Amino acid sequence: MMPHLVPVVIGLGQTGLSVARFLTQQGIDFLVADDRASDQAGQTLHKIGYDKTVQSIAQLVPQSGAHWYISPGVPLALPAIAEAQRQGVILTNDINLFSQQAKAPIIGVTGSNGKTTVTTLVGFLASQQLPSVRVGGNIGAPSLDLLDDAASCYVLELSSYQLELSTQLPLKVAALLNLSPDHLDRYETVDDYYAAKSHIFSSAEQGVVHRDVAHNATPSAVSKGVRKLQVFSDRPPQDDAEFGLIERGGQTFLARGQAVLLAVSALKLNGKSHWMNTLAALAIGDCLGLDLDQMLTDVCQFSGLRHRCQRIELHDGRTWVNDSKATNVGATQSALRDFESAGPIILLLGGQAKAADFSELARQVTQLHSLKQVLVYGDAGAMLADSLAPFIVPEVFSEFDCMVRRAVQLADAGDVILLSPACASLDQFSSYEARGDRFEELIMARAA
User: Fold this and answer.
1) CATH code of the domain made up of 96-299
2) Backbone phi, then psi, for 173, in 5-degree steps?
3) CA distance 288 to 284
């Protein structure tokens, strides 16, 4: 007689708890494991009727053929998980389970930077033309909590952690916005990180991709199984289908082919990174079948998200920018390109490094004609200072608050004070949001 195979939910954050709720609703018996389960997680399990002990991951006894639902924050390289896979356990996740249940088209968005903004913008544009659009995944609600028979479509942000185990996602549209090194504290090589991102195309009907990614990064993975590949870029389009930027009469326009779509001055958000996000969203919406003219009208109403190159208006003649979400080098490089002509820059870097290489950022920083000063803080402060040392001597602070107060002292009228840390926040904050909120508190106290 075959043994009863019991699924296991590993990790009791938002995602793991959503899997537990779903399995409970389906009447499926399961186990849970987490080495650091919070009291709140225990209370949630109690509410859904789970009365078994929460095991440690190392205590689990692998059953060949059983499904283990791995939360994104749990590394697959953990010895207990790697051994379970060797013994025939099927490692999967909530995204795969969701895709098996969803009846409406699914749009997946990934990339090293910009994916939250693009996911949110696509959701906004789609909601203007479709009756019931559900947005979530790596932002907001976990995917399983979005399931709704009345949904017109689902728009999911997908991280590399989620895509590691999602190798057969039946996506209507899969978008890979960009690639730059990140999460090297989790991946052995940058190629491993890129490979995880490229899983998004494995079973997609249509793909949306930046031209540089399509030409240079994992081209075989990009093209595998994708019926149509829609390209966008920050340059003039190369064919009539491509979305890009063109210059006419001294102005920059969003374009498709040689057709002008919209002057970038009509958008509420400035800077090339925001223009790229807009072009990506338009390309995704086009693949979904949304009316382009309607999207161009609606996109002008989108005001962006907090902590992402967000200008804080203090009306003091200075430009204060909260880009706390810039937790990797690529995001900070993009922010510098957006603001390099806006005035002398006081750049605020630091936090918790993710095995990052800061050498390229250091070179870019020192090539800025408008650079006024660099301030660094936190666990990565010394590493950043060493990377910058051949070119510039930054001021180093152990505490975030001290760094920001120094920036306030240095800032003159016309300056750009740019918090774009290139590092995670977890050495001193619970999240990048908490870091950005503290930045705003400190600079607003100055203005009071």
Assistant:
1) 3.40.1190.10
2) -135, 130
3) 6
Q: Which fold has domain 310-447?
A: Protein-Tyrosine Phosphatase; Chain A (3.90.190)
Tokens 């907090």 locate to 306
- Residues that are catalytic: 115, 138, 183
Residues of the chain with CATH 3.40.50.720: 8-92
Please identify, in words, the CATH class of the domain defined by 8-92. alpha beta
How does pLDDT run across 249-299, given as a tens digit for each residue? Answer: 999 999 999 999 999 999 998 899 999 999 999 999 999 999 999 999 999
Residue 404 confidence class, pLDDT cut points 50, 70, 90:
very high
How far is CA 376 from its chain centroid? Answer: 23
Can you spell out the DSSP letters for 368-436?
-TTEEEEEEESTTHHHHHHHHTTT---EEESSHHHHHHHHHHH--TT-EEEE--SSBSTTT-SSHHHHH
Q: Quick one: 321 exposed, middle or buried, by C-beta within 10 A (0-12, 13-18, 19+)?
A: buried
Please state, in angstroms and rounded to a whole number, the distance separating the CA atoms of residues 153 and 174. 13
Work out the average pLDDT over 124-139: 97
